């Protein structure tokens, strides 16, 4: 075999690796290794390449695959898998850790290629599917927090649709984590990371040991354990996020973001008037003392609560992970393998104390003590007051704190080998994800709280700190919810030489699989309490959700595929893949109310089948230039949660609407004229045309890789993804403006709060949207030798051209370069430039620049009461519309130095955010969590950090 040229080598590194095949069929590939030397090159083994099922000698391919080697991972300075993946330029639209702070995170962190969404990015572990998060509202995606970074050898990212090989969910691409294997050394690694400012320290330690060399001894067993801890960072430790009052200026005019809450401590009062005039709000404590208490701001006679000061920017978390893998060589052509990955990840985010409105009787002692003395001062006529409400912030119960715990288990075993010229593999995979939500602090039993108040044990208007002991019996310390997601897969595949083509030997790959999905949710009694379907539950939770219902569902899926590689010419390969998938209707395993009555039919939703295909080609007209392209179709099946989640009460419509039905329709009896209507949410359990169908997509890429001079490699890829029949929830304005077309979304409902039958709007998912995403990815590298050492540069990035969604009645909505209607931002440019200097065998230095372009901020109208003018004297003026704020671009630099003391002993020190760049001001108030002053989804609040890592192999 001839020695590889530099272009070939760079392309091989970009596109190759021992990765699982197809839909997770490969269990254990033999890693291709460059064992050649200048004097005695050796044969390279066939391996499987991400995005292909055919084993081949590693070389440049037709698909854009990015590979993060073990060295790349170390250079990143990442503390976790989520830190590593979410920092890549191709990643946008994921769920970050900050979203667990009163957002929809609940301890889940995800990957999302090109901003298309977490549910469209397939995540694999050693080429096999992983059970998705059991939390259905998190896009039903894999939780990256369950994967131990210390056990990862490399990561391969296919940034092209791959449904034709992997089936559902691979519309945006694939992220494949390959764990360490066939190692014999004992390795100990420890890292400590500390910001220069208070809060947010982290550390991790990992140890692994291998026994037996697979090639020499015929077996290998690898054991690994890792422990990670992240300390919390609270808002008060960073000035840019410590308050809901955030000053800024635009065009020479001073403004202030005014994010405060009327639920306050000590409690405030709202007086209702018999003549229909606007309520009067005041804080008795302010009128008594002339000042507001801690964490509050004065607004007239009212003290509003500064909730932003009470949240965490980074929650405390810890992770324990175990990895066991084994390989046994039966003979030279047959290998048995088994692997197990078990992890426990817990995160305890804290945010503002519970808010609670409570009726205040006009004849009560509290009214006489805290309201009557101030009526004259407020100019109130007692005869015109027909009601009063206490607006409470229950600070004495503590900040609301959950422990979100995820226990993940991933098991796989099987056989692979070669027989009669066929490379084959058969395996079984069991993967499960168990989620627990435990109330740690801040949530209260409504029954106990009401009893304490009625008995005079808690004074809502007393200074904070005086009612801690009184409220303690009402504070909940219990598991609120449990959910489980399971995945069982049996699969087999094989590949073989087919026929001699003009450019070489053609090859074919074939495979089949059967998959069972299961999803259960078991909310506690207190979360079910306010649901009309659960009349025996009488208590409810203060500060949390309510009206939940249990469910358990399963579904069988089957798939088969074929792939053919044809070398049309010596420099032109064409690959075609075809896949067929069949999904059964969801089975309602155990979905009952507390009286044992079924809450749905035995089967729910539609069965579905889908064929997808992909054609790709690589052409190398000259040695220094590679042209590549692909075109294919994809699909995403509805999730079990989207189909089987029970319908449950979830509040009211945001706006008032006229009655959507009229007589003689029997539903008209529940109408109440122009008003707000109840909202019910849950899965779409219908079948036929009203039920859910798979989303479909078309993807294409075209790109090139050029080596104009020695050691310089330039790569660009233009990609496009179009999605139809996107599953989404219909917006209420569309449904109420055309009630005839959406008649099936209006139903009669026994309102648990009103205690009467009303008409309700059913917000269940339907196939109604379409989307288009387009962009350019680049990956350039340069290496050279100098008198002072080896130098290298790597520049990767993504330039987005389109990020659009179309909904009926609203037209095209874009979030490209702006805060969009979906409350997300798709950045126009994300880029990373890394330069390394290998000074000697002892010293290696790396400087990395990370860049995100700026964007148009969230906008407000005067009615939103969010942005106020600041007068020249510093006083606040009126609330105004503020549509023109631009969030600045965000650039940070990281430095790292690695010292190799001797073989097997290394120390690495680094500085993240070298110049202590503060996150740019963002006015977002409806982002991923409760943080204010910046958007925590896109920037790092820690500031400058120092870290040191030690690794010892023996």
Automatic annotation (TrEMBL):
Domain TonB-dependent receptor plug residue range list: 62-174
Which residue intervals define the domain TonB-dependent receptor-like beta-barrel in the entry? 395-914
Is Magnesium included in the keywords of this UniProt record? no
Q: Where do the TM regions start and end?
A: none
Task: Classify the source by domain of life.
Answer: Bacteria
Task: Extract the signal peptide range.
Answer: 1-32
Which keywords belong to this entry? Cell outer membrane, Membrane, Receptor, Signal, TonB box, Transmembrane, Transmembrane beta strand, Transport
Family that this chain belongs to: Belongs to the TonB-dependent receptor family.
Q: What is this protein called?
A: TonB dependent receptor family protein
> What is the organism field in this record?
Collimonas fungivorans
């Amino acid at each position: 075999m001839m020695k590889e040229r530099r272009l070939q080598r760079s392309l091989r590194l970009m596109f190759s690796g021992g990765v699982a095949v197809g839909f997770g069929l490969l269990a254990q590939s033999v890693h291709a290794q460059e064992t050649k030397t200048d004097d005695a090159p050796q044969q390279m083994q066939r391996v499987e390449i991400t995005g292909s099922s055919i084993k081949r000698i590693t070389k440049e391919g037709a698909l854009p695959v990015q590979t993060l080697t073990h060295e790349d991972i170390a250079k990143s300075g990442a503390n976790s898998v989520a830190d590593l993946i979410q920092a890549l330029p191709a990643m946008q639209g994921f769920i970050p850790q900050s979203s667990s702070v009163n957002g929809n995170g609940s301890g889940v962190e995800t990957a999302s290629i090109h901003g298309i969404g977490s549910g469209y990015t397939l995540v694999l572990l050693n080429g096999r599917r992983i059970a998705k998060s059991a939390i259905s509202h998190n896009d039903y995606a894999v939780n990256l927090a369950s994967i131990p970074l210390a056990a990862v050898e490399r990561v391969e990212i296919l940034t092209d649709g791959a449904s034709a090989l992997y089936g559902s969910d691979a519309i945006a691409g694939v992220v494949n984590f390959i764990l360490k294997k066939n190692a014999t050394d004992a390795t100990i690694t420890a890292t400590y990371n500390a910001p220069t400012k208070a809060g947010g320290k982290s550390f991790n330690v990992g140890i692994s040991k291998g026994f037996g060399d697979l090639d020499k001894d015929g077996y290998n067993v690898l054991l690994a354990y890792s422990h990670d801890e992240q300390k919390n960072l609270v808002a008060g430790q960073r000035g840019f996020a410590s308050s809901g009052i955030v000053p800024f200026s635009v065009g020479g005019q001073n403004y202030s973001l005014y994010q405060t809450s009327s639920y306050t401590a000590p409690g405030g009062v709202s007086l209702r008037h018999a003549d229909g005039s606007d309520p009067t709000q005041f804080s008795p404590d302010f009128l008594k003392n002339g000042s507001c208490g801690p964490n509050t701001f004065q607004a007239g006679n009212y003290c509003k609560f500064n909730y932003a000061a009470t949240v965490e920017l980074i929650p405390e978390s810890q992770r324990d992970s175990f990895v066991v893998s084994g390989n046994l060589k039966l003979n030279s052509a047959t290998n048995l393998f088994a692997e197990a990955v078990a992890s426990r990840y817990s995160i305890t985010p804290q945010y503002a104390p519970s808010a609670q409105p409570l009726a205040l009787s006009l004849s009560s002692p509290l009214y006489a003590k805290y309201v009557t003395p101030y009526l004259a001062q407020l100019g109130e006529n007692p005869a015109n007051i027909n009601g009063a409400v206490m607006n409470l912030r229950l600070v004495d119960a503590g900040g609301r704190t959950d422990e979100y715990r995820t226990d993940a288990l991933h098991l796989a075993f099987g056989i692979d080998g070669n027989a009669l010229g066929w490379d084959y593999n058969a395996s079984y995979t069991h993967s499960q994800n168990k989620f627990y939500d435990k109330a740690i602090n801040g949530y209260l039993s409504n029954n106990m709280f009401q009893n304490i108040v009625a008995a005079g044990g808690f004074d809502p208007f007393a200074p904070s700190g005086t009612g801690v002991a009184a409220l303690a019996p009402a504070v909940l310390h219990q598991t609120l919810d449990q959910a489980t997601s399971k995945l069982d897969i049996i699969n087999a595949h094989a590949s073989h030489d087919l026929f001699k083509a003009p450019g070489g030997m053609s090859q074919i790959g074939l495979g089949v699989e059967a998959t069972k999905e299961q999803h259960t949710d078991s909310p506690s009694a207190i979360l079910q309490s306010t649901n009309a379907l659960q009349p025996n539950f009488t208590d409810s939770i203060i500060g949390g959700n309510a009206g939940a219902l249990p469910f358990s569902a399963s579904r069988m899926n089957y798939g088969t595929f074929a792939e053919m590689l044809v070398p049309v010419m010596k420099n032109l390969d064409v690959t075609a893949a075809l896949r067929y998938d069949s999904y059964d209707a969801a089975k309602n395993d155990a979905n009952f109310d507390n009286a044992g009555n079924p809450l749905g039919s035995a089967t729910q939703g539609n069965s579905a089948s889908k064929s997808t295909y992909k054609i790709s080609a690589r052409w190398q007209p000259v040695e220094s230039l590679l042209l590549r392209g692909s075109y294919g179709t994809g699909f995403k099946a509805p999730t079990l949660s989207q189909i089987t989640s029970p319908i449950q009460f979830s509040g009211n419509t945001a706006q008032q609407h006229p009655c959507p039905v009229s007589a003689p329709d029997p539903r008209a009896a529940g109408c109440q004229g122009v008003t707000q209507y109840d909202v019910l949410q849950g899965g779409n359990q219908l079948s036929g045309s009203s039920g859910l169908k798979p989303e479909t997509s078309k993807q294409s890429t075209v790109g090139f890789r050029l080596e104009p001079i020695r050691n310089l490699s330039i790569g660009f890829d233009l990609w496009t993804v179009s999605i139809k029949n996107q599953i989404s929830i219909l917006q209420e304005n569309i449904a109420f403006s055309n009630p005839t077309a959406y008649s099936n979304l209006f139903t009669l409902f026994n309102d648990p709060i009103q205690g009467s039958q009303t008409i309700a709007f059913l917000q269940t998912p339907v196939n109604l949207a379409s989307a288009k995403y387009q962009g350019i990815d680049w990956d350039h590298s340069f290496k050279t030798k100098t008198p002072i050492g080896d130098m290298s540069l790597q520049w990767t990035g993504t330039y987005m051209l389109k990020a659009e969604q179309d909904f009926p009645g609203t037209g095209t909505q874009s979030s490209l370069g702006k805060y969009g209607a979906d409350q997300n931002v798709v950045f126009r440019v994300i880029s990373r430039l890394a330069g390394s200097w290998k000074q000697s065998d002892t010293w290696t230095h790396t400087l990395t620049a990370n860049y995100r372009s700026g964007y148009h901020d969230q906008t407000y109208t005067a009615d939103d009461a969010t942005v106020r003018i600041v007068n020249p004297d510093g006083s606040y003026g009126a609330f105004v519309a503020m549509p023109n704020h631009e969030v600045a671009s965000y650039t940070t630099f990281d430095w790292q130095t690695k010292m190799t003391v001797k073989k097997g002993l290394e120390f690495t020190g680094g500085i993240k955010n070298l110049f202590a760049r503060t996150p740019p001001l963002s006015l977002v108030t409806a982002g991923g969590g409760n943080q204010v002053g910046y958007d925590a989804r896109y920037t790092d609040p820690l500031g400058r950090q120092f870290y040191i890592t030690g690794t010892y192999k023996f």
